[in-house]
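RECORD TYPE: inverse folding
INPUT: structure tokens
STRUCTURE:
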């Protein structure tokens, strides 16, 4: 059973006891990401995540890494557009030690100038690496059009010029603003009780995090439309489509998941069968839905050769038009529901996956995640709901398209106009 407690300072604790395992997965979730940044500080959330592990007055960066490994735990962090998460997974007997260390890092990092300069170079290499990843570029270009005019249009890594000039004072000012208790969720899943987690939070977090309040604005709802391109001599072509769709935790989210599965998830999906198995046009094609507080997209991603680009586009258009016209079959719906139900239940057997789902949900909604309700919503999706969804949201007036590949393959065409 999922339990959620909000402390007087606004900090939320969500947990679920799994007494049949010997592990505990823990995430410290902060509502910070590129979706709250400006052009001037774009990349500061990701920069802060990196330098958080670079030492405190008590421990060097090496000692932090060594201690987590001494405890037999795995530790990492990630930054997205609306959240930053610091997490670890450990055996239950070392949970308190790992929890204390993570809290120490989050609230007592030194942000030493020399260490910041070292990590600055690492992040610049990460940005440079993206320049060799056409799918990442394609997604970033797509976001520019989909969320144009909002902070969600900016990249998570930020521009190199920003990364070069971020200082210790910038990081301290950012953490003072964003790492407030009312903007933080601690998510714990594994062999530990909710009361034990609260006790550790009071012991190691509340004594350090204070009572400051974070005031922030989420990006407003936008309906993106347009075409973005990045022409470079990659051997393959990457194409991405994004229909403006549902924000996080929308009442139609289960319907969207079913449509996404049938259209582009798995080997039986319509796009995979048409573009790869029947026509041999692509190596990779899939759908992916992303959602934020006020925004969301239904995405379609295609990786193909230049000579097959326009045939692949025609095939995608054909499948979209079919599902808008005829909807999905009962057989497809039944298969999608069972797969989505199985995936949900499989994930519950992994404490790290479950912790992630609970933490993100609590951060964006302030509530505990109800797995049974989620499953009921999936299993109750009807054919009429899916065809209504497709006709409403597969709207070419609310479509953004991005292209990454050789200029010769594109031939100055606006691929958005083709749709």
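DESIGNED SEQUENCE:
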């Amino acid at each position: 059973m999922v339990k959620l407690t909000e402390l007087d300072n606004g900090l939320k604790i969500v947990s679920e006891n799994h007494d049949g395992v010997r592990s505990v997965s823990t995430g410290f979730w902060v509502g910070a990401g590129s979706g709250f940044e400006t052009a001037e500080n774009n990349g500061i959330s990701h920069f802060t995540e990196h330098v958080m592990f670079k030492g405190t007055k008590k421990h060097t960066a090496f000692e932090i890494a060594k201690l987590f490994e001494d405890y037999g735990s795995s530790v990492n962090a990630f930054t997205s557009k609306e959240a930053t998460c610091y997490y670890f997974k450990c055996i239950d007997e070392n949970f308190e030690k790992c929890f204390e260390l993570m809290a120490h890092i989050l609230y007592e990092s030194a942000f030493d100038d020399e260490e910041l300069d070292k990590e600055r170079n690492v992040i610049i290499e990460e940005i440079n690496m993206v320049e060799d990843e056409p799918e990442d570029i394609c997604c970033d270009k797509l976001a520019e059009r989909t969320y144009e005019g909002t902070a969600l249009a900016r990249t998570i890594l930020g521009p190199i010029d920003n990364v070069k000039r971020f200082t210790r004072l910038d990081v301290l000012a950012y953490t003072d603003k964003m790492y407030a208790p009312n903007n933080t969720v601690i998510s714990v899943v594994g062999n530990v009780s909710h009361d034990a987690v609260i006790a550790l939070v009071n012991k190691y977090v509340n004594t350090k995090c204070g009572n400051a309040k974070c005031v922030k604005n989420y990006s407003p709802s936008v309906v993106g439309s347009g075409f973005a391109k990045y022409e470079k001599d990659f051997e393959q072509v990457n194409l991405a489509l994004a229909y403006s769709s549902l924000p996080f935790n929308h009442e139609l989210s289960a319907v969207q998941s079913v449509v996404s599965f049938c259209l582009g998830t798995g080997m039986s999906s319509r796009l995979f069968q048409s573009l790869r198995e029947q026509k041999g046009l692509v190596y990779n094609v899939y759908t992916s839905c992303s959602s934020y507080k006020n925004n969301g997209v239904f995405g379609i991603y295609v990786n193909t050769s230049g000579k097959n680009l326009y045939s692949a586009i025609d095939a995608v258009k054909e499948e979209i038009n079919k599902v808008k016209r005829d909807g999905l079959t009962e057989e497809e719906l039944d298969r999608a529901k069972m797969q989505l139900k199985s995936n949900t239940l499989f994930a519950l057997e992994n404490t790290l996956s479950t912790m992630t789902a609970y933490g993100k949900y609590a951060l964006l909604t302030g509530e505990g995640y109800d797995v049974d309700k989620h499953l009921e919503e999936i299993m109750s999706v009807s054919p009429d709901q899916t065809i209504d969804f497709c006709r409403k949201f597969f709207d070419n007036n609310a479509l953004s398209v991005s292209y990454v590949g050789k200029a010769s393959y594109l031939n100055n065409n606006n691929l958005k106009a083709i749709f």
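NOTES: The longest strand covers residues 282-291.
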